[in-house]
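Notes from hallway chat w/ T.B., transcribed later so I don't forget. T.B. wanted the structure written out for a chain they're using in a teaching module, and asked if we could keep both sequence and structure tokens in one place. Agreed to drop them here.
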Amino acid sequence: MGKEAKKNGVVSEKTKEFVALGIAISTKCESCIGLHIESLIRLETTRDELIEVLAMCSYMGGGPSITFSTKALEAFDQLSG
């Protein structure tokens, strides 16, 4: 099910990974955040793209999402460097 859901279709795989990251942030799942960040790096996501998505996650989720968005950005910086 995962492979089928993630493949490019009308919506790109990168967009689907951003959605999954937003859900991981909202559910506070650190391991999920890490997995989706790894996928986004593989998909050549830029730091600026990620920051825009994390800003929306933070806006919609408030304080807890700000905390977990920070964790996502830290993971991106560590894994993409």
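Follow-up for T.B.: The mean pLDDT is 94. Might be a good example for the class.
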